[in-house]
Fold these 3 entries.
Entry 1:
Amino acid sequence: MCHVSVGHIARNAESKGIPTVAVMARSFGHVASEMKYARAVITRHPMGRPMGPPGDRATHDRVVDAALDLLASATSGTTIVELPEPYRPLNEATQRS
Amino acid sequence: MGESIREFLDSFFYGSRNDLSFKFLKGMSEEEASEFLSLLLTKVGELYDGAPPDDLIDLAYQWQVDAYTPKPGAERKWVHEDGPFTPLSKPLAEMSVGLVTSSGHFTSEDPPGDGRATKSQEEIVKEIDDFLARTPELSEIPTSHPTEELNVRHPGYDTRSSALDPEVALPIRALERAASRGSIGSVSSPAYSFVGAASQLRLRADRDGWVDRWKEAGVEALFLVPV
């Protein structure tokens, strides 16, 4: 339902002259196509973690960069990009490094 | 009489075993669920012998994706033939980018009036039907607010990760780092969060004037995160 709610927002914003880009988890990627989001980045992350695992700044930055690249480069509506990286939560050793 | 398999599966969807990461079990046939649970247990068993958890995560992820992806011919409600598109009016590096998420985060200084501030996540989950008919409430989150002090309540998704690290659904700091790299001009403050389980007709018509509110706040482009 959240993806439909934000779909309404994306459409309203675009209609009033604000360009948008959305980041969403793969489970709801079909909503981007159905609602004709202007620009969407789909991540292969579980529901509730669209930007990536907790504490994983590198992944959050990669997703943000991909979304901003799409925001800047899309020339027509319903431009959808899917990122290939799987969801890999940080373990304690990684977090300490 | 004991619990049936059907009742067991349904209990994960706002029932006695409610688990918002696995509520999709309700929509599965008993045969599908049996296969899923069998594969899941096999992968758990492999962990005993040192297998990395990646395969287990990928398995749960893929079954979640398959469960939510509409089957061919399924009736869909919110489908549009085309959509509005606004090109950028100037380089992104010169734009103020606003952040809007449906994560359900809020600050203690600006608690929402819908009951979330005084109830636990478990209590809010029980109100899902009420939320779906409610007027959505937009929480303002100053970008300077310490993200570790944010609260999150949402009746529709597993909030454990976004409680641990709001950046998984509310990427204020990641956007600020993008601004420091020169990718965008700035991050507009405040960021905004609401509970996406809300009145769809109200959101569709923008009856609460959110877009005009964001424009007045200086937002020139929007970074959206549906959760």
Note: Chain B touches chain A through 73 residues (CB under 8 Å).
Entry 2:
Amino acid sequence: MSKANKKRSRLIFRGVVLLLLAAAILFSIFSKDKVEVLAVGDKAPDFELVDLDGNKHRLSDYAGEGVFLNFWGTWCPPCKREMPYIENQYQAFKEKGVHVLSVNIAESNLKVDTFRDQYGLTFPIVIDKNKDVKELYNILPLPTTLLIDKDGRITKVITAEMTEKEIISYMESIQP
Amino acid sequence: MSKIKCQCGHDNPFGTVLCEKCGRPMTEEAKKSEVVDMRYEGSARRSQTYKRSIIDKIWNFFSSVKVGVGIIIAVLATSAIGTLFPQKLYVPVNQDSPAELLAYYERLYGIIGTLYYKLGFYDMYNSWWFKILIGMLGTSIIIASVDRVIPLYKSLKKQRTKRHASFMKRQRIYGAGLSGDAGSSLAKAEEKLKNMKYNVKTEDGAILAEKNRFSRWGPYVNHTGLIIFLFGVLLRGIPGFYVDQTMWIREGELRSIPGAPDYYLENKDFILETYSKEEADEVFGEAIDRVGTIVKSYQTDVSLYKKKEDSLPGSTDLEHVKDYPIVVNKPLKFDGYNIFQMDYRLAELKSMTMQLIEKKTGKSFGQFTIDLDDPEGVYELNDGARVDLIGYYADYDGVENGEPVSKSPIPNNPAFIFDMITPEKPNGEKSFVAIRQTLETEENAYQVKFVSAETRDISGLTIRKDKTLYILLLGGLIFMIGVIQGSYWNHRRIWIQKGEGEELLIAAHTNKNWFSLKKDLNAVKEFADLPKYEDRLDNESSSEEEEGEK
């Protein structure tokens, strides 16, 4: 092998080794310990839950339309505060192809029923009885809201209380 | 960069200290020194050659042992600091709230605690800078090893039997002198060394006896083990390779298992057994007297369910897999997962039994039981009376804006608003009932009275899955093989060759344990009538040896 050739192959060897090692370090930094964490841009995994009236709701039922997926609990104060705003905007957007699907985490039917009547909510409320969807979506704080566009992709994950203005702009963003 | 040509005609790479072939010193420093440094056989470390592109510069940086030691010290120091205060994982506050975490460290450890938090030591094993440090350590191990093991291998392979006198002279163990008959001495030495299980090579009046060269590869085998280990740890970041989760599950609850998608667990019963006085008398009778009770076993009886293949998450269409009693150290095993019994809480409220009475007469309309997880709206009682549950607050925490508030969905402090409908008061009477507290807007004729409460236990379980375990085991095994290989065997070489006339030169080298090398050499010397030698770095012990022989 000529000298120049040798030098070139050494450079390639070293470059490749260093690149692999750098990739390994970056991977270890950006990989999470959680099994699967949903991120913006991911396909929202399908699920099937039963609402207060016994009807089954699948996320895939809303394919082609925007979904405003809200996880909440009756005991959580910010959830209570944003509920009336969500109801208002549900009314405003339901004809425009944006749906609200509200997932209560494992509470009793009575509790959720009372809550719905108290706040006069008309959008579908499903209960995640065995915390399956909560694990699937890795929901930690309540309320957490996911915006899902018409292609079924997650466009935003909101882990805080929302104002009515924010809710309007979020719903506009997923309007097909 | 040019090659260095030795007088023997061999082309050595730039940076060589001792000629790969004949051992002549190549550098001014080596020429001047009495005893030459034999590390890596005086071969050129590969990285010394080129210092041109940025890649070569980075390579050279990691090739340096000094840098490697620096990284090790940094890892040690930061790891040590990380043990000063508890890590985030062991802190009993909300793991996802930075404010609560900061407050915790501040409250317990003051300014140092705040600093500890701000600098990221509170979760350091997951911090980016610690991962970079470990990554740099791995890089350093790989590059420094590659740069040394290849030249070492080459020069040990290329070494000539007959060395130049200047190489012999610069060895730590060296001797020269006249022998009666150089030829027969050499022949005898060869015979003796072969008996002592040396590999003996001869060339033109010179002998090279060598033993246990493989011991030189020990450190590199050891490093390979380390790299495999680090690689295994790295794999844990890939989804599905490593799961370490905890879950609290109440008796009677069925819920999905965190970290194990498609699987569900039902807690049938938690059983805490303690030793009875009789059975424990002989062994821990005294201990029971002293501490009260001693636990015999912690057990959770569970049922495992799997989601049916075509059903979606959230659906209740489940398939029963098996029942199993989880006991400490006897985990439930399925599909690579292990579920361990880790913790428990006893006696959480499960249901409450109440009765409706007429205050004046104390007449009861019967009892009803409220399931605190799934209360009903209406409880029908005797004589046409009923109680409507119009408000339920599982974890009652006072009144806010004229409305009772629950601070969590867990029934720690249940409170109820009842509407009592009786034949006498068909429009109902409202009353707010919490533990040890009854509020009425106006004086009622009827009252819901607490009768009893039923409790249930909660099991704390840990879900583990580790596909990297065997990789870590392999890494550890190779690591140990390398340590043993390098520690229990020594690479020994003895050179004997003819000098001028009947003069004989002897030299010897080992990577460790010079005492045994000298013992070997003494045996050969005695047998073959070789000249005296001296250990030029260890005069003290050689003189001691002579004293011992007297």
Note: Chain B has five domains: 1-33, 45-156, 163-212+490-549, 242-346+460-466, 351-451.
Entry 3:
Amino acid sequence: MQQIINFVIRNKTSLLFLLLFGISLALTIQSHSYHKSKFINSANFITGGIYDKASGISNYFDLKTQNDILIEENNRLRSQVFNASDSTSIISIDSISYSGRYKIQSARIINNNYASSKNYLTINRGEKNGIKEDFGVMTSKGIVGIIDNTSNGYARVLSILNTKSKINAQLKTSDQFGSLEWNGKSSSIVQLTDISKFAPVREGDTIVTGGKSSIFPKGIPIGAVDNFELDISGDTYIVNVKLFNDMTNLSHVYIIENLDADEIKLLENPVDE
Amino acid sequence: MNSLNLNSIIRFIVLVLAQALLFNNINFLGNINPYPYILFILLFPVNNNRSLFIFMSFMLGLFVDIFSDSGGVHAASCVSIAFIRPAVLKFAFGMVYEHQNMKFNNTEFGNRLIYFSILIAIHHFIMFTMEIFNISNIILILQKTLFSSIFTIILCVLISVLFSNKQR
């Protein structure tokens, strides 16, 4: 017993090092597995508050760009409204918007990372605004990510620039779908994998969200095809997609809540008896 | 408990906030960020309580992790360089360190540069390895380590020269 105590006292620095290194290794591994990084995240009271204060100041330097983006969006929406009024007489059975019950909220980005390989954003809406996990986040130009962690006043967004992110996406012109991933290299290029090699992919084609998940509605723009190649197996394409969004300059975002998400999930994963 | 004085605590808070609000958002040439918060570990007084020093390094890394949503990568790399610091000190400063009375302000610039470079390179290598966590991306890890290290070394040297209270 004496020897054990002596051993601990003699090597207390090494043991402390091993303990702390083990803890941080465990936290790292936990953050690499999807939807488990619960403890270490920036959506808590202290860090959220500090980021909120800091972005309150830095927002003023960006007002002009953000105004231009808003005007551009207003223009687009207004032209949609005017053009739609012509075609009200035409009865169209639109099979795309099959269950479109979505609730939209606006939010402001208070922290934006895009330099590492696991990027997250923090927004200034949280549980008190009804935000929950697995809500989609988009801007007027395209998708940004999925909410993966919430606190009372803040929420953390798993950016599409995160090697853990996997979002269902498809070509705008055909229904061949694949999953949108990121290889960690460029902050303006993401990869669309598992697109069948029979799909009519051309450079410049638009990539939109597919309606296969219960997070995003179908047809939100993501980006345009930059180039594509067959993957090693030779059966599917890997498509490099240039994002419409400038992920390095985001300020105002919309949060999409699918009101039918619970029902769809219940249907797809029935509770075991 | 003289080693953990007010000076160290202020340095801790200022460096964490500077890292979170300023240095994480530099993104030079797209994705190169410096990590000068490890100046806290580099310039921690030498004649210290070693367990306390390792624990403070862990807390420093953990706070930066919380701010930058990176799991435990900063904590792991900070603990590692805190653990191997005495060996690097001995290598870089030699006799001055052996006499146990060195102060960083009085050391030679060349020695200090070697000391900074070794610890920063090790820190960045561990950090990027754990962040990318995929050994098939070793080229990307080395590339990020190299560029960020150069950036961090320049900033650390500048900051330490700027804030050293050397009498002249």
Note: The first helix of chain B runs from residue 6 to 21.
